[in-house]
Amino acid sequence: MLLILAGLRPALLKHKLVNVLVEACLCSGAKDDDTTSDPGKPQKVSKKKWRKKFRNKPASNEHLPWEERLADSVTPLWRLSYYDQLQLKQKHQERILLQLSDQLLCGESTQHKSLTQYPSPPRSTKLSFPLLPILPSPVRDGYRNKSTFSVNRGVDGNPKTVGFYVGTGKAGNIVCVNGDHLLNMPERHKLVARCYQDFLRLSALEPCLLFHDGGHWREVTVRTNAAGNTMAIVYFHPQRLTPEEIEVHKSSLVEYFTQGPGVICQLDSLYFQESSMTRCSHEESPYQLLHGQPHIHEEVLGFKFRISADAFFQVNQGAADSLYRTVREMGLPNGAREGGGGGTLLDVCCGTGAIGITMSPRADRVIGIELIQQAVEDARHNAALNQIQNCEFLPGKAEVVLPGLMEVLGSTTDSGGPLTAVVNPARAGLHYRVIRALRNHSSIRRLLYISCKPEGEAMRNFRELCCSPDPHRKLTGEAFRPTVAVPVDMFPHTPHCELLLVFER
Ligand SMILES: C[S@@+](CC[C@H](N)C(=O)[O-])C[C@H]1O[C@@H](n2cnc3c(N)ncnc32)[C@H](O)[C@@H]1O
To answer: Any binding-site annotation on 338?
Structure first.
């Protein structure tokens, strides 16, 4: 299938297509309900959205093979050369930023929602700040270090099929298609998915296709690292099974992957989460280690990171290197170099501490804030692992922790050098209270915002940072202005990328 798909590429390398796709990306705003920060993740695409997206293609894609329909949904740019993909993303980012410029020039209300509500073309034709060329991903195929495979009815009607959805639950036309041909998936992820499917077909238990309809086996998440280690996390709906009954099935899962046919996956860790909710944290329902190592490790910019099953890590290690290098270069004031001098760095939504830790040698002090407890523990561990002593990590919601922290920092930074903030929230953007706390703290002169969906909720945050002071909304601090933007391609073959936007005042 891969060969067939690869063979089709040159036929569609048209600049017109690039323009159509730029429009489509912007209009669609990559609509989905997923609040995590991984736009390269397969998403459900309805027929209607599909038609709107690809107006130059036949109205229906139903004549296409299932694999091609899936590839078009998960990796819609797979037909383009990598050069054309980058061009498209650059234009897409430029257009988003032009619309931001429009909104800032017109002083539009900070309460507007997202760019998806601004379908008209931007009025500005020139940006008031530089947009640097997109940084390419060093690896283009098989770059993902985390994939989640669903379980549902396959093309042949078999309900124990592991793959990705084509269609939507709402339209009642979901088909689960195996992802072996997807360009962004590494071989190891595909292998684990195939083995999990084999295991399900051997199991006496039914899969959980719809939450209210019974069934047990749910999706599997596979995480890998550059060193070749593999972690699998199997999600399971307990329904009315007793703990003893569940134990039997957990044992059969372990046996399959450690002594049975699944041994070819060479799993370093096997986790199991029983849950009657679609997504829940370790605190809500523990990730149970059934076999092997509790963590997976990754290396970025020469720093080592421990990553828990529940913790976020950038999905493309090579591109994460480029992103963090750029953040490090642009983040701290001139004069900051190894050994400090960069003042205090706030790492808001810090995950396992990657940004703060990679910047720590140039900062005097790093304070990270993160919601997920396991990630905070990882961040603390990672600072120690890299012999770093100037980082601290605070658990909790940034909107709860940051306002109090800013009050404390008010007095200490008077003599403690500049204060810089790096924020890297999930797609839902930052809570208004976070923006207000940052904006109203006059010591922050530079703020770096990293977003994988700048046209979404992040746009609301950009406006809140840059609008004129608004006493009604208690946004009294001096306004920021964007000074430079750098796109980083974290997700080849998809229309998405990360955008680093630097604000100063
Ligand atoms: C896109 S990830 C970035 C993580 C980290 N900066 C990195 O580069 O690896 C967003 C992180 O924000 C965390 N998060 C989401 N909502 C949050 C909130 N309200 N307060 C603090 N952290 C939050 C998520 O758990 C996740 O770790």
So the answer is: no
- Cβ neighbours of residue 263 closer than 8 Å, sequence gap 6 or more: 257
The CATH number assigned to the domain holding 192 equals: 2.40.50
Looking at the fold, whether 333 and 387 belong to one and the same domain comes out as yes
- What number of helices (H) and strands (E) belong to the chain? 13, 16
Which of 268, 292, 316 is the last residue in one of the domains?
292
Any known ligand binding at 382?
Answer: no
485 and 431, same structural domain?
yes
The pTM score is 0.87
Overall number of domains in the chain = 2
Give the neighbor-by-neighbor strand order of the sheet with 344-348. 391-395, 365-370, 344-348, 419-423, 444-451, 498-504, 481-488
C-beta 433 within 6 A of ligand 1: no
Q: Is the CB of 355 under 6 A from ligand 1?
A: yes
Give the chain's length. Answer: 505
Quick: pLDDT tens for 56-77. 444 567 789 999 999 999 999 9
**Which neighbouring-strand residues pair with 165?**
176
Contact 92, 22 (CB under 8 A): yes
452 is catalytic: yes
Q: What is the pLDDT of residues 73-103, one digit of tens each?
A: 999 999 999 999 999 999 999 999 999 988 8
Place of tokens 């692992």: 385
Percent helix, strand and coil across the chain, each to the nearest 5: 35, 20, 45
